[in-house]
Amino acid sequence: MDKLQLIATAPMGLEAVVARELLELGYTDQKVENGRVIFTGGLADICRANLWLRTSDRVLIKMAEFPARTFEELFEGTKAVNWPDWIPEDAEFPVEGRSHKSQLTSVPACQSIVKKAIVEKMKSVYGTEWFHEDNGQRYVIEVWLLNDIAMLTLDTTGPGLHKRGYRKLVTEAPLKETMAAAMVLLSRWRPERPLYDPFCGSGTIPIEAAMIGWNIAPGLRRTFNSEGWSIIPEELWEHAREEAFDSVKDNVPLHITGSDIDPRALEIAEAAVKKAGFAKEIKLQQMAVSRLKPEGDYGCIVTNPPYGARLGDEDEAEKAIRQLGLSSLYIPTWSMFALTQSRTFEDTIGRKADKKRKLFNGRIECTYYQYFGPLPPRNKTDSPSKS
C-alpha cells in the first residue's frame, strides 16, 4: 500500500495552489489536472493529506481507470478491482457518479452498474448473497466518466475539507474556508506582516490566516471517514496527529484584525474566532470601511467585499467598494487582495489590478484582484520591493 495513487480535488483555478501545498508536504511525484492533483503515497499519506491540505476539497484513492463505452465494460472494469481488500463485509458503500462527454450518459444507471459489480466481487470473497451495510463505516465510491474513460475513486475524507470545525453559524453568503485559505496563500502574506479584513463577515479569512501563521493543520479539529477503516492502522492516524500538534508555532506574534458594519456578522465572527482558539490573537470590531485605518506598515488587506445578495442592494455594495478604494490611498505601503463577483470592481475601486485570477467560491464564479504594495525592507538600508 506504499504506491497508492491519491487525488487531492481542487476548486477550479486552485489546482496550482493545491499542487504547491502537496509539494511543501513533500509529495514531489504529482500530476496536475483540471479540478485535481494526482500524487503518490501510502496509507500514512492519506492521514497527512487530510489533516494538512488547506485548499483542497477532499482526498480520494484512485482505485481504477479504464475505457467504458458500454455497461458491460463498466461492469467488468469495476469487478476487476479488489474491493474486499478495502471494504469489510458489513460496511456501507454508496456509489456516486458523474458523466461528461461519454456514451454512458445516464449517471443513475452507471451508479447501479458499479454497485452491482462491487457486490458481485464481494460476494465471491465473503460468500454471502446480501450485504446489510449497517456497521456505520462509510466507503463512498465515485465513478467519473469523461470521454468514455471511467475512473473509480474511494473517498477518504467524508464531509469536505472546508469543514474545519470552528464555524457553526454562517452568514447569508459564507466564504468557504478552503477559498479563504487560498486567498491568504496567494497574497504571500507572512505572520510578521499585519493582515486586515474590512469585510470580515463570519471571520473566515482572519481565522484561516491565523492558522497559517501558527502552522496549524486545518484538519486537527475534525474526524474523517477513513479514520474508522480497518485497512488504516489507528497508529498511523495517531502519528499524523502527533506530528501536526508538534508542528504548531503558537509563540509567533500575530497582527490580524477584522471589521464589519453588520453587528450580526460580528457576533458570528467572534464565536468562530473563540472556537478556533484565537480570541486573543484576532481583533474584531464593528466599523464601516470608511473608517478603515489599519495599524502598521507593509500589511495585507485580504477581503471578500459584499456584492449584490450579501448587502441586498448593489448600489450599497458598490459604495462600499468605492470607499475601500479611497481608504486604501491612506495606507500606501499596504497590498490589497479582493475576491468578488463584481465585474466592475476595478472601475468602482478606481484602480487597475496588478494581477487578476478567476476562481470559484463553490459554484460562484469570482475574480481575485491583486494589488501589490512594497514588501517590508529587509533592513534600514534596503529599498522596498513590490509584492
Describe it for me?
- The protein is an alpha/beta fold.
- The protein is 30% helix and 21% strand.
- The protein contains 10 helices and 14 strands.
- The protein has a 7-stranded mixed beta sheet. A 7-stranded mixed beta sheet has the order 10-9-8-11-12-14-13, with helices on one face.
- Helix 8 (263-276) links the parallel strand 9 and strand 10.
- The protein is elongated, with a radius of gyration of 23 Å.
- The chain starts with a strand and ends in a 16-residue tail after the last strand.
- The mean pLDDT is 93.
Walk me through the topology.
Layout: E1 4-9, H1 15-24, E2 30-33, E3 36-41, H2 43-52, E4 59-67, H3 71-79, E5 95-100, H4 107-126, E6 140-146, E7 149-155, H5 177-187, E8 195-197, H6 204-213, H7 234-246, E9 256-260, H8 263-276, E10 282-286, E11 300-303, H9 314-328, E12 335-340, H10 345-349, E13 355-361, E14 364-371
Parallel strand pairs: 5-6, 8-9, 8-11, 9-10, 11-12
Antiparallel strand pairs: 1-3, 1-4, 2-3, 4-7, 6-7, 12-14, 13-14
Helix pairs in contact: 2-7, 3-4, 5-6
